[in-house]
Amino acid sequence: MKESVLNEPSFRLFLVYRLLVTLAIQMQSVAVAWQVYNLSHSALHLGYVGLAIFLPNLLFALPGGRAADRYPRRRTMLISISLILLTSASLLLSHLFPRNGLGQIYITLGLLGLARAYYGPAATAYLAQLVPTHQLPRAVAINSTAFQLSTIMGPALAGVIVALPDASVATVYATCLVFLLAAVLILLRLPMLPVPGGPGRDLDILGGLRYVWGNKLILGAISLDLFAVLLGGAVALLPVFARDILHVGAAGLGTMRSAPALGATLMAIYLSLRPLKGHVGHKMLGAVLLFGIATVGFGLSRNYHFSLACLVLLGATDMISVVVRQTLIQTHTPDVMRGRVSAVNMVFIGASNELGEFESGVTAAWLGTVPAVVLGGVGTCLVVLIWSLIFPTLRKVDKLHLGQ
Protein backbone atom coordinates (compact mmCIF):
# COMPACT_ATOMS: atom_id res chain seq x y z
CA MET A 1 0.00 0.00 0.00
CA LYS A 2 1.33 3.43 -0.92
CA GLU A 3 2.14 5.74 1.96
CA SER A 4 -0.31 8.61 2.30
CA VAL A 5 0.96 12.07 1.43
CA LEU A 6 -0.63 13.28 4.68
CA ASN A 7 2.01 11.33 6.62
CA GLU A 8 4.59 13.90 5.52
CA PRO A 9 4.91 16.53 8.33
CA SER A 10 6.06 19.31 5.98
CA PHE A 11 3.05 18.78 3.72
CA ARG A 12 0.67 18.96 6.70
CA LEU A 13 2.35 22.16 7.83
CA PHE A 14 2.04 23.57 4.33
CA LEU A 15 -1.70 22.84 4.37
CA VAL A 16 -2.18 24.82 7.59
CA TYR A 17 -0.13 27.66 6.16
CA ARG A 18 -2.16 27.65 2.93
CA LEU A 19 -5.44 27.63 4.85
CA LEU A 20 -4.48 30.69 6.93
CA VAL A 21 -3.26 32.72 3.94
CA THR A 22 -6.31 31.96 1.83
CA LEU A 23 -8.64 32.55 4.76
CA ALA A 24 -7.17 36.04 5.20
CA ILE A 25 -7.29 36.86 1.47
CA GLN A 26 -10.91 35.67 1.14
CA MET A 27 -12.06 37.64 4.17
CA GLN A 28 -10.26 40.68 2.85
CA SER A 29 -11.90 40.36 -0.59
CA VAL A 30 -15.40 40.34 0.91
CA ALA A 31 -14.64 43.36 3.09
CA VAL A 32 -13.17 45.27 0.14
CA ALA A 33 -16.16 44.53 -2.09
CA TRP A 34 -18.62 45.60 0.61
CA GLN A 35 -16.63 48.74 1.41
CA VAL A 36 -16.25 49.76 -2.24
CA TYR A 37 -19.91 49.16 -3.09
CA ASN A 38 -21.07 51.12 -0.04
CA LEU A 39 -18.81 54.02 -1.00
CA SER A 40 -19.60 54.02 -4.73
CA HIS A 41 -23.00 52.28 -5.14
CA SER A 42 -21.64 51.21 -8.52
CA ALA A 43 -21.18 47.79 -10.11
CA LEU A 44 -18.51 49.34 -12.31
CA HIS A 45 -16.36 50.11 -9.27
CA LEU A 46 -16.59 46.45 -8.26
CA GLY A 47 -15.04 45.77 -11.65
CA TYR A 48 -12.26 48.23 -10.89
CA VAL A 49 -11.41 46.15 -7.81
CA GLY A 50 -10.52 43.20 -10.04
CA LEU A 51 -8.68 45.40 -12.52
CA ALA A 52 -6.54 46.98 -9.78
CA ILE A 53 -5.33 43.53 -8.75
CA PHE A 54 -4.96 42.12 -12.24
CA LEU A 55 -2.81 44.78 -13.93
CA PRO A 56 0.23 44.53 -11.62
CA ASN A 57 -0.23 40.77 -11.54
CA LEU A 58 -0.01 40.76 -15.33
CA LEU A 59 3.05 43.05 -15.42
CA PHE A 60 5.05 41.14 -12.80
CA ALA A 61 3.92 37.55 -13.32
CA LEU A 62 6.79 36.56 -15.62
CA PRO A 63 9.44 38.10 -13.32
CA GLY A 64 7.67 36.31 -10.47
CA GLY A 65 7.96 33.00 -12.29
CA ARG A 66 11.63 33.61 -13.01
CA ALA A 67 12.22 34.37 -9.33
CA ALA A 68 10.51 31.08 -8.37
CA ASP A 69 12.94 29.14 -10.58
CA ARG A 70 16.05 31.16 -9.64
CA TYR A 71 15.79 31.73 -5.88
CA PRO A 72 14.66 29.56 -2.93
CA ARG A 73 10.89 29.40 -3.23
CA ARG A 74 10.24 29.66 0.50
CA ARG A 75 12.14 32.96 0.59
CA THR A 76 10.02 34.36 -2.24
CA MET A 77 6.85 33.22 -0.47
CA LEU A 78 7.97 34.90 2.75
CA ILE A 79 8.61 38.26 1.08
CA SER A 80 5.30 38.09 -0.80
CA ILE A 81 3.24 37.18 2.26
CA SER A 82 4.84 40.04 4.17
CA LEU A 83 3.68 42.44 1.46
CA ILE A 84 0.17 40.96 1.55
CA LEU A 85 0.18 41.54 5.31
CA LEU A 86 1.00 45.21 4.70
CA THR A 87 -1.96 45.50 2.32
CA SER A 88 -4.29 44.35 5.09
CA ALA A 89 -2.83 47.05 7.34
CA SER A 90 -3.35 49.66 4.61
CA LEU A 91 -6.95 48.59 4.05
CA LEU A 92 -7.57 48.82 7.79
CA LEU A 93 -6.26 52.40 7.75
CA SER A 94 -8.40 53.19 4.67
CA HIS A 95 -11.49 52.39 6.72
CA LEU A 96 -10.41 54.05 9.95
CA PHE A 97 -9.16 57.20 8.17
CA PRO A 98 -11.20 57.41 4.94
CA ARG A 99 -9.89 60.77 3.74
CA ASN A 100 -8.39 59.29 0.57
CA GLY A 101 -11.59 57.47 -0.38
CA LEU A 102 -11.39 54.84 -3.09
CA GLY A 103 -7.95 55.96 -4.26
CA GLN A 104 -6.09 54.42 -1.33
CA ILE A 105 -8.06 51.19 -1.71
CA TYR A 106 -7.17 50.81 -5.39
CA ILE A 107 -3.47 51.58 -4.76
CA THR A 108 -3.43 48.98 -1.99
CA LEU A 109 -5.06 46.41 -4.26
CA GLY A 110 -2.37 47.14 -6.83
CA LEU A 111 0.27 46.22 -4.24
CA LEU A 112 -1.72 43.07 -3.50
CA GLY A 113 -1.59 42.16 -7.19
CA LEU A 114 2.19 42.70 -7.17
CA ALA A 115 2.60 40.42 -4.16
CA ARG A 116 0.45 37.71 -5.71
CA ALA A 117 2.50 37.83 -8.92
CA TYR A 118 5.50 36.55 -6.94
CA TYR A 119 3.64 34.46 -4.38
CA GLY A 120 1.59 32.29 -6.76
CA PRO A 121 4.38 30.74 -8.88
CA ALA A 122 6.62 30.18 -5.84
CA ALA A 123 3.90 28.48 -3.76
CA THR A 124 2.75 26.27 -6.65
CA ALA A 125 6.29 25.17 -7.52
CA TYR A 126 7.14 24.67 -3.83
CA LEU A 127 4.25 22.23 -3.40
CA ALA A 128 5.46 20.18 -6.37
CA GLN A 129 8.90 19.93 -4.70
CA LEU A 130 7.41 18.94 -1.37
CA VAL A 131 5.85 15.62 -2.48
CA PRO A 132 6.88 12.73 -4.77
CA THR A 133 5.57 12.91 -8.35
CA HIS A 134 3.35 9.84 -7.98
CA GLN A 135 1.56 11.51 -5.04
CA LEU A 136 1.11 14.85 -6.77
CA PRO A 137 -2.50 14.37 -8.04
CA ARG A 138 -3.65 13.49 -4.52
CA ALA A 139 -1.57 16.31 -3.02
CA VAL A 140 -3.13 18.80 -5.46
CA ALA A 141 -6.62 17.61 -4.53
CA ILE A 142 -5.89 17.78 -0.79
CA ASN A 143 -4.27 21.19 -1.16
CA SER A 144 -7.31 22.34 -3.11
CA THR A 145 -9.51 21.06 -0.28
CA ALA A 146 -7.60 23.20 2.22
CA PHE A 147 -7.89 26.14 -0.15
CA GLN A 148 -11.63 25.69 -0.57
CA LEU A 149 -12.23 25.19 3.14
CA SER A 150 -10.71 28.59 3.72
CA THR A 151 -12.78 30.09 0.92
CA ILE A 152 -15.88 28.74 2.66
CA MET A 153 -14.98 29.98 6.11
CA GLY A 154 -13.42 33.28 5.00
CA PRO A 155 -16.37 34.92 3.23
CA ALA A 156 -18.88 33.54 5.74
CA LEU A 157 -16.85 34.82 8.68
CA ALA A 158 -16.33 38.19 7.01
CA GLY A 159 -20.05 38.53 6.27
CA VAL A 160 -20.98 37.68 9.86
CA ILE A 161 -18.44 40.14 11.27
CA VAL A 162 -19.57 42.99 9.01
CA ALA A 163 -23.19 42.34 9.96
CA LEU A 164 -22.50 42.53 13.73
CA PRO A 165 -23.84 45.74 15.35
CA ASP A 166 -20.54 46.70 16.99
CA ALA A 167 -18.21 45.51 14.23
CA SER A 168 -17.28 46.66 10.72
CA VAL A 169 -14.97 45.92 7.84
CA ALA A 170 -12.16 47.23 10.07
CA THR A 171 -12.64 44.19 12.30
CA VAL A 172 -12.31 41.96 9.25
CA TYR A 173 -9.05 43.61 8.21
CA ALA A 174 -7.67 43.30 11.75
CA THR A 175 -8.54 39.59 11.77
CA CYS A 176 -6.75 39.17 8.44
CA LEU A 177 -3.62 40.67 9.99
CA VAL A 178 -3.67 38.07 12.77
CA PHE A 179 -4.08 35.18 10.32
CA LEU A 180 -1.27 36.43 8.08
CA LEU A 181 1.10 36.86 11.02
CA ALA A 182 0.39 33.25 12.04
CA ALA A 183 1.02 32.14 8.44
CA VAL A 184 4.43 33.85 8.43
CA LEU A 185 5.42 32.02 11.61
CA ILE A 186 4.40 28.67 10.10
CA LEU A 187 6.21 29.42 6.84
CA LEU A 188 9.44 29.94 8.79
CA ARG A 189 9.14 26.34 10.00
CA LEU A 190 8.87 24.86 6.49
CA PRO A 191 12.07 23.52 4.89
CA MET A 192 14.19 25.74 2.66
CA LEU A 193 14.25 23.42 -0.38
CA PRO A 194 17.10 23.77 -2.89
CA VAL A 195 16.56 25.57 -6.17
CA PRO A 196 16.25 23.01 -9.02
CA GLY A 197 19.32 23.21 -11.24
CA GLY A 198 21.29 25.33 -8.77
CA PRO A 199 20.82 28.85 -7.35
CA GLY A 200 21.30 32.13 -9.20
CA ARG A 201 20.94 30.77 -12.73
CA ASP A 202 20.42 33.24 -15.56
CA LEU A 203 17.00 32.08 -16.70
CA ASP A 204 15.05 33.02 -19.81
CA ILE A 205 12.10 35.06 -18.54
CA LEU A 206 9.99 34.09 -21.57
CA GLY A 207 10.79 30.38 -21.28
CA GLY A 208 7.47 29.60 -19.60
CA LEU A 209 5.49 31.30 -22.35
CA ARG A 210 7.33 29.37 -25.05
CA TYR A 211 6.88 26.09 -23.22
CA VAL A 212 3.13 26.59 -22.77
CA TRP A 213 2.69 27.71 -26.39
CA GLY A 214 4.49 24.60 -27.63
CA ASN A 215 2.52 22.21 -25.41
CA LYS A 216 -1.01 22.13 -26.79
CA LEU A 217 -2.32 20.07 -23.88
CA ILE A 218 -1.27 22.67 -21.30
CA LEU A 219 -2.23 25.57 -23.57
CA GLY A 220 -5.71 24.15 -24.09
CA ALA A 221 -6.27 23.52 -20.37
CA ILE A 222 -5.07 26.98 -19.30
CA SER A 223 -6.91 28.92 -22.03
CA LEU A 224 -10.13 27.00 -21.42
CA ASP A 225 -10.13 28.20 -17.82
CA LEU A 226 -9.24 31.72 -18.94
CA PHE A 227 -12.17 32.25 -21.28
CA ALA A 228 -14.72 30.17 -19.36
CA VAL A 229 -14.22 31.96 -16.03
CA LEU A 230 -13.63 35.32 -17.72
CA LEU A 231 -17.14 35.15 -19.16
CA GLY A 232 -18.77 33.39 -16.21
CA GLY A 233 -17.67 35.82 -13.51
CA ALA A 234 -20.88 36.03 -11.49
CA VAL A 235 -19.04 36.17 -8.15
CA ALA A 236 -17.85 39.75 -8.77
CA LEU A 237 -21.46 40.95 -8.83
CA LEU A 238 -22.59 39.16 -5.65
CA PRO A 239 -22.79 42.43 -3.63
CA VAL A 240 -25.37 43.66 -6.15
CA PHE A 241 -27.39 40.44 -5.89
CA ALA A 242 -27.15 40.46 -2.08
CA ARG A 243 -28.23 44.06 -1.66
CA ASP A 244 -30.50 44.91 -4.59
CA ILE A 245 -31.84 41.68 -6.12
CA LEU A 246 -32.11 39.00 -3.43
CA HIS A 247 -32.18 41.50 -0.52
CA VAL A 248 -30.17 39.38 1.92
CA GLY A 249 -27.61 41.96 3.12
CA ALA A 250 -24.01 41.49 4.23
CA ALA A 251 -24.64 38.16 5.97
CA GLY A 252 -26.26 36.81 2.80
CA LEU A 253 -23.31 38.08 0.79
CA GLY A 254 -20.92 36.13 2.99
CA THR A 255 -23.00 32.98 2.59
CA MET A 256 -23.18 33.37 -1.18
CA ARG A 257 -19.43 33.97 -1.39
CA SER A 258 -18.94 30.75 0.58
CA ALA A 259 -21.36 28.64 -1.51
CA PRO A 260 -19.02 28.05 -4.49
CA ALA A 261 -16.26 27.12 -2.07
CA LEU A 262 -18.58 24.62 -0.35
CA GLY A 263 -19.24 22.89 -3.65
CA ALA A 264 -15.56 23.00 -4.51
CA THR A 265 -14.56 21.57 -1.12
CA LEU A 266 -16.97 18.66 -1.39
CA MET A 267 -15.68 17.91 -4.87
CA ALA A 268 -12.04 18.27 -3.79
CA ILE A 269 -12.58 15.82 -0.92
CA TYR A 270 -14.21 13.38 -3.32
CA LEU A 271 -11.33 13.70 -5.80
CA SER A 272 -8.73 13.25 -3.05
CA LEU A 273 -10.42 9.96 -2.11
CA ARG A 274 -11.26 8.86 -5.65
CA PRO A 275 -8.85 10.53 -8.11
CA LEU A 276 -9.87 10.80 -11.74
CA LYS A 277 -8.44 7.83 -13.63
CA GLY A 278 -9.78 7.93 -17.14
CA HIS A 279 -11.26 10.24 -19.80
CA VAL A 280 -10.12 13.27 -17.81
CA GLY A 281 -10.29 15.53 -20.88
CA HIS A 282 -13.97 14.79 -21.44
CA LYS A 283 -14.67 15.19 -17.73
CA MET A 284 -12.94 18.57 -17.62
CA LEU A 285 -14.88 19.87 -20.64
CA GLY A 286 -18.15 18.55 -19.22
CA ALA A 287 -17.46 20.19 -15.88
CA VAL A 288 -16.83 23.59 -17.48
CA LEU A 289 -20.04 23.21 -19.49
CA LEU A 290 -21.98 22.64 -16.25
CA PHE A 291 -20.17 25.67 -14.80
CA GLY A 292 -21.71 27.81 -17.56
CA ILE A 293 -25.16 26.32 -17.04
CA ALA A 294 -24.97 26.96 -13.28
CA THR A 295 -23.99 30.58 -13.99
CA VAL A 296 -27.06 31.05 -16.19
CA GLY A 297 -29.27 29.51 -13.50
CA PHE A 298 -27.88 31.84 -10.85
CA GLY A 299 -28.40 34.90 -13.03
CA LEU A 300 -32.05 34.03 -13.68
CA SER A 301 -32.87 33.02 -10.09
CA ARG A 302 -34.90 35.18 -7.72
CA ASN A 303 -34.97 32.55 -4.98
CA TYR A 304 -32.14 32.82 -2.48
CA HIS A 305 -31.87 29.08 -1.81
CA PHE A 306 -31.92 28.17 -5.50
CA SER A 307 -29.24 30.80 -6.05
CA LEU A 308 -27.12 29.15 -3.35
CA ALA A 309 -27.61 25.76 -5.02
CA CYS A 310 -26.41 27.17 -8.34
CA LEU A 311 -23.35 28.64 -6.65
CA VAL A 312 -22.55 25.30 -4.99
CA LEU A 313 -22.78 23.55 -8.37
CA LEU A 314 -20.65 26.28 -9.90
CA GLY A 315 -17.90 25.67 -7.35
CA ALA A 316 -18.04 21.87 -7.64
CA THR A 317 -17.68 21.87 -11.41
CA ASP A 318 -14.91 24.45 -11.28
CA MET A 319 -12.95 22.26 -8.87
CA ILE A 320 -12.88 19.39 -11.37
CA SER A 321 -11.34 21.76 -13.90
CA VAL A 322 -8.87 23.10 -11.32
CA VAL A 323 -7.58 19.66 -10.27
CA VAL A 324 -7.24 18.43 -13.85
CA ARG A 325 -5.54 21.61 -15.04
CA GLN A 326 -3.12 21.94 -12.10
CA THR A 327 -2.12 18.28 -12.19
CA LEU A 328 -1.53 18.29 -15.95
CA ILE A 329 0.61 21.41 -15.65
CA GLN A 330 2.68 20.06 -12.76
CA THR A 331 3.25 16.57 -14.17
CA HIS A 332 3.96 17.72 -17.74
CA THR A 333 6.45 20.46 -16.74
CA PRO A 334 10.14 19.93 -15.81
CA ASP A 335 10.92 21.02 -12.24
CA VAL A 336 13.45 23.61 -13.42
CA MET A 337 10.64 25.38 -15.33
CA ARG A 338 7.74 24.97 -12.90
CA GLY A 339 8.01 28.50 -11.54
CA ARG A 340 7.89 30.14 -14.98
CA VAL A 341 5.13 27.86 -16.28
CA SER A 342 3.17 28.42 -13.06
CA ALA A 343 3.58 32.17 -13.63
CA VAL A 344 1.97 31.85 -17.06
CA ASN A 345 -0.83 29.86 -15.46
CA MET A 346 -1.23 32.57 -12.80
CA VAL A 347 -1.54 35.23 -15.52
CA PHE A 348 -4.35 33.24 -17.10
CA ILE A 349 -6.00 32.65 -13.71
CA GLY A 350 -5.69 36.34 -12.87
CA ALA A 351 -7.15 37.28 -16.22
CA SER A 352 -10.07 34.91 -15.70
CA ASN A 353 -10.72 36.02 -12.11
CA GLU A 354 -9.71 39.66 -11.63
CA LEU A 355 -10.11 40.73 -15.27
CA GLY A 356 -13.32 38.72 -15.29
CA GLU A 357 -14.52 40.86 -12.38
CA PHE A 358 -13.79 43.97 -14.44
CA GLU A 359 -15.58 42.50 -17.46
CA SER A 360 -18.60 41.63 -15.30
CA GLY A 361 -18.68 45.12 -13.78
CA VAL A 362 -18.49 46.83 -17.19
CA THR A 363 -21.09 44.52 -18.74
CA ALA A 364 -23.41 45.00 -15.77
CA ALA A 365 -23.04 48.78 -16.07
CA TRP A 366 -23.95 48.61 -19.77
CA LEU A 367 -26.62 45.89 -19.88
CA GLY A 368 -27.71 45.41 -16.27
CA THR A 369 -26.59 42.88 -13.68
CA VAL A 370 -28.83 39.96 -14.64
CA PRO A 371 -28.21 40.11 -18.42
CA ALA A 372 -24.46 40.35 -17.77
CA VAL A 373 -24.44 37.14 -15.71
CA VAL A 374 -26.72 35.20 -18.07
CA LEU A 375 -24.80 36.19 -21.20
CA GLY A 376 -21.55 35.30 -19.46
CA GLY A 377 -22.82 31.81 -18.67
CA VAL A 378 -23.98 31.28 -22.24
CA GLY A 379 -20.56 32.45 -23.44
CA THR A 380 -18.87 29.88 -21.20
CA CYS A 381 -20.91 27.09 -22.77
CA LEU A 382 -19.91 28.27 -26.24
CA VAL A 383 -16.24 28.34 -25.23
CA VAL A 384 -16.44 24.66 -24.22
CA LEU A 385 -17.86 23.69 -27.61
CA ILE A 386 -15.20 25.67 -29.48
CA TRP A 387 -12.29 24.37 -27.35
CA SER A 388 -13.38 20.76 -27.81
CA LEU A 389 -12.86 21.31 -31.55
CA ILE A 390 -9.65 23.36 -31.66
CA PHE A 391 -7.84 21.42 -28.89
CA PRO A 392 -8.44 17.72 -29.67
CA THR A 393 -5.39 16.82 -27.54
CA LEU A 394 -7.19 18.17 -24.49
CA ARG A 395 -10.41 16.40 -25.38
CA LYS A 396 -8.66 13.06 -25.84
CA VAL A 397 -6.38 13.10 -22.77
CA ASP A 398 -7.08 10.00 -20.68
CA LYS A 399 -4.68 10.00 -17.71
CA LEU A 400 -3.65 12.80 -15.35
CA HIS A 401 0.00 11.82 -15.53
CA LEU A 402 2.14 9.43 -17.54
CA GLY A 403 2.85 7.06 -14.65
CA GLN A 404 -0.78 6.62 -13.61
Could you explain how this protein is built, in words?
This protein is mostly helical and 404 residues long. It is built from 15 helices and no strands. It has helices spanning 9-40, 43-70, 73-96, 101-130, 136-163, 169-187, 207-214, 216-231, 238-245, 249-273, 280-300, 304-331, 338-367, 369-390, 392-396. It is globular and about 50 Å long.
Order of helices and strands: HHHHHHHHHHHHHHH
Which structural class do you get from the secondary structure elements? mainly alpha
Shape: globular
Instruction: Tell how many strands the DSSP assignment holds.
Output: 0
Query: What percentage of the residues does DSSP assign to strands (E)?
Result: under 5%
Termini distance? 15 Å
The radius of gyration computed from the alpha-carbon positions, rounded to a whole number of angstroms, is: 20 Å
Please state the average pLDDT score.
81
Instruction: Give the helix proportion (percent range).
Output: over 70%
Number of helices: 15
How many strands, which pairing sense, and closed or not: the largest β-sheet?
Answer: none
* Model regions low in confidence, pLDDT < 50 over at least 5 residues: none
